[in-house]
């Protein structure tokens, strides 16, 4: 469907107010419901799912170290909004259709509050998954200032729950951030990038079958979902009126499968100041920013001296990435900035020269090296699906780092897609990527490198929780496990992959 661009203003999700707050802790309640919302002024209202009646959900803002309790409440209908495939793990007919569990992506959190995929719950907690432990989650927020986000994580239906609208921003602030004098208040704006496809009546379209339908099944999971329309903060191709000054944007790719490679059509630089895990050491001026699903970039854009100009944010990442269809006039357009507001006061904010030290983890400290493949597989219906280390979700746990230990993981990608690999609990550093010969690996299980090590891109030189593992490359990451022990997960953040076996439990042990 062709929807006119730049006719609706960019919505900015409200900041959630706590139910209680005292000097010791903060308590929020977040209700999940179904409602109708206008996603474009020429489109009928769309039935979506959201948190606190809002899609995207309200932004949760907490301080670093602030002990925060959140009761996530499922008040959704009993019937799912989107087509369920009952053959994928966790979504068999023996569980209720509508289940939810919330994960704060990038959070440093005890495992019982991490939103384990089998810790799901239904309305009034009437039914719960086998790993459900508590109704009120506790977040210690032991991160520095950073851009996190919360979203659904239910085993087997994450792609549908998130596509229906269950996602929002979770920002952590700290004193360091306060003294940096960044653009703030109305000059600091979250940008959630997503793609969707609409039916004529304005309802959300999600495919019931892959391109080559599976005859034995009424509904089958698809290997990827590629929408034909781009939304920002839940609006189709919105515009934002800005003053001729600096703005800070928290970019987040919250799509199911689509990658974004963002550019401004004015050719101007984006000044990136933060990665997934918070501030980088120094800002980097870049012409384009690559964001796989779940990746974030904290950027400053300077509109000074651009009075009267319209600037379009564009995208040129093929979907699926990297070998899929190139973008067109629709999927290649994201949103528009209109430099039409008068400067309301002198812009005294800065792009700091230095944000925070980025201490490199010492590789010699690594007590364990793990070689982990990303593979293709075929199911009994002839459908292709992806695995981590050739193991399904239900296979015994194999990644069991010791609390406080440092490990290096080699992500050996044997598939033809780039997979955004995400680990819960910790932030890691990307060491490098290196080309290797897949055929030799398949035959002899040996890595034969065909290039030298390629250092991470300038925009990746900071704390990360999601890394793009490219085809024909070994991607190496290094991390220290802690401060909690317990059961977490690591997975591909392409939601159609995650929902169909490209996810593994891992456990931090004492
Ligand atoms: Cu963004 Cu395991 O999640
Ligand atoms: Cu994947």
UniProtKB/TrEMBL annotation:
InterPro entries: Cu-oxidase-like_N, Cu-oxidase_2nd, Cu-oxidase_C, Cu-oxidase_fam, Cupredoxin
Positions of the Plastocyanin-like domain: 44-91, 99-175, 205-325, 384-508
GO molecular function: copper ion binding; oxidoreductase activity
Protein family membership: Belongs to the multicopper oxidase family.
Name assigned to this protein: Multicopper oxidase family protein
